[in-house]
Amino acid sequence: MSFINTFLGGGHDLLLLLLVQVALILGLSRLIGLLFQRMNQPQVVGEMLAGIMLGPSLFGWLAPHASAAVFPPASIAYLNVLSQVGVIFFLFLVGLELDPKLIRNRGHSAVVISHVSIVAPFLAGTGLTLFLYSRLFNHAPHMQFTPVALFIGASMSITAFPVLARILTERNLHKTKVGAVTITCAAVDDVTAWCLLALVIGIARAKGISSGLYTAGWATLYVLVMFFGVRPFLRRLQQVHERRGRLNQGMVGAILLMVLASAYITEVIGIHALFGAFLLGAIMPKGNDFVRTLTEKLEDFTVVFLLPIFFAYTGLQTRIGVLDNGEMWFYCGLVILTACAGKFGGSTLAARACGMPWREAGAIGILMNTRGLMELVILNVGRELGVITDAIFAMMVIMALTTTALTTPILHLVYPRKLMEAEQMTDLTGGYKVLIPVSLPSSGVSLVKLANALTGEDEDRKIVALALTRPRDRSAFRAGLDLDQPPEKAPALQPLLAEAAREKIPVTSVSFTSRDVASDICRTARLRKIDLVLMGFHNPVYTHSILGGTVHRVLTGSDSDVGIYVDRGESLPRNILVPYLGSKHDRLALEIAGRISRNTKVPVTVLHVTPPNRNQGEAGRLNAKAETDRVFNDPSHALPVTMRTIEGDSPVSVLIEQAKEFELVVIGVAEEWGLESQLLGFRAERVAREVACSLLIVRKHGSLAAAQGIPLDSKNNPVSAVS
Amino acid sequence: MYLVMLAVLIAGLWSILAIGRHLDAPSDLAGKWQLTPASSGPSQILTVEQSGKFFQISFDQGPTLDLKLQSGTNASNIAIGNKTSQLLILSTANPSDADNKIFVLTGPHPGQWNAHRTVRTFPEDVQSEGAR
Known about the structure:
Largest sheet of chain B: 8 strands, antiparallel, barrel
Number of strands of chain A: 10
Strand content of chain B: 35-45%
Shape of chain A: elongated
Largest interface: A-B, 44 and 39 residues
Number of helices of chain A: 31
Structural class of chain B: alpha+beta
Low-confidence stretches of chain A: 474-481, 677-684, 703-723
Helix content of chain A: 55-70%
CATH architecture of the largest domain in chain A: Up-down Bundle
Largest sheet of chain A: 10 strands, mixed
Oligomer: heterodimer
Strand content of chain A: 5-15%
């Protein structure tokens, strides 16, 4: 108690306490959020759980004295104020994210599914209240059956649009039919659920028919004023922004004032401040930089700072301990089951009725069942209204957590990645196919030139430029805003595409959000049956290795051949050196050099280094010769290739010395060159470091172990076979 | 199809609300109660947390008990208890007075108490609560 008294003794102490609380909340929220992200769960699930952990359900249960010292009841009001402000701005952002195009341009199936996905859980929720009312609700004036039932129905109808958009983009589902239908339905559900909630709040707060009519009348007038008075004003603000080219602090201040004023008015009318904030965001003219810039300015502070406080406040109000017997847990299970049956069942059956296959229908149902923090927002409103008890609050919080956490794993089961990939599989036939993943825009130009040299004038050739963007480091936001960006607009691809247009090189652009860049590069290569993944090199962040990080993972994980281009020249090379010792990677290097030579007539020199012991060296030389003849044997025209055999103890030293005469070295990843071992971690990449010209390091696809075994395996080793 | 959906919604909702209107929830006893012994002795503060028929009652000097409604969902006389304790809540002369009751306890702090609710968990004035 003395600790609390010290903290609460004066204004400064209260400030100190608040700082400690917020620091603890933010720290734990980030930690658990990131942990959940690593477990392929939406970060928001972790943040919600962190809030519950700080409350009486865990922290208060494990260390009641410490909990009471850090979160004394007298301080909770301050956290509540911060959390309410956070939720108001969060709802404004949700409104901003709402794209009216999604609602207007709906197909038949989206219309049906979105309506059923609201009606079914709403009826299921109100129906469940028939059973729970006499068991878990009190006979209090504000807990009459009608507002309680409507509230439970509305809270079961909610879908967390932001979390949903995030899951869809992270799984690259947003461009599939499932994704398109789901995102549309979620947008419709969002609008409907908040309107429904405003209605329920109006009913719950009304003291009679006249009071209800008064609220309804003012609410209607308010909506009309917003659409026909405020929206044109917002459009003018947007035009000012377009003229100036930036969003200045004066305009941001004006928008913030409007958010607060709108929230204030709806609170006074009796339909809650959240509705006002949401509506202002929703009527904001969309599809322009104004909304994007405004969102960027507001969302970091709101989502990173204020929302975790809301989660903590919710957690402090959640007492899972009240569910202390089997009967209570049975009711909790029933709540979860009803919520899932209504939302998941309703959406799935509606999608099936619209002719979608069971798996796709199931995927839509699961996605629509995601409730996320939107459910917590609604529940806090219900608690504030006094229409739900502690037990129902705790059960619904558990339901929100469960339905959100289950989304990703069940989606994996019902709509596995393999199935999705099968749908996306393209380009099964055709000529040589090169995939160019680009992260640095500047590296794209040299890569596309090299890809052009590799593919030549073949009409069936395919060059695919891939730009992967990492998801933004936030709980859920803005995923929806970027859905419509065409791949050719990806900033990373711009120099590459400009060069391709200049040189008339046919390039297909692909761009999507990726949490795991390396595995998505490998996946894209597999789906498009790519022959060669051609990557640029840039210094990895955490290692000095040229073949570390993403490069290492693509080299070892790809089902296609991989080439890493270390570009140290301005244009295509005038001569090429291919060191050859006989591994399958060396053979690939020969083949690739042959391709370039065939298409550009650049002379190739094959370097074979033999050990000083002549007996061993002759067999290798013969093999190199045979392989060179095979690769460069073109009946139509002779390719400019020469063979150079040099004795030396160290192939690496010989290569570095010889490479001085050349502009490009195409080299296989192999133990002899000091590269393959680097894949396993330790040996220095002398060749890569010390060769002064451009370098194309190639690796034949196949497992690392197999690759290492090849030079020793007589069956697969052409050196041995020829010998 | 949309008309069918609308009809299902309206009919379903109307039916549920019509049936629900006849349901009774357990009397609301949640809040802080000032207990004055009917005979003699010190007063007690009793905090009642209630979710329907499930109660958690805490005396200011302990203990805390988990009790369940045994009889009298919304009657003037209500019994809540567990295996070892029971709290009988009786109406005063004015049965509609929800804030003044007579508590008869068995188990910890046994005896008869005049109980006055000083704080309601769910206030009666919804408008002012909502606007807080």
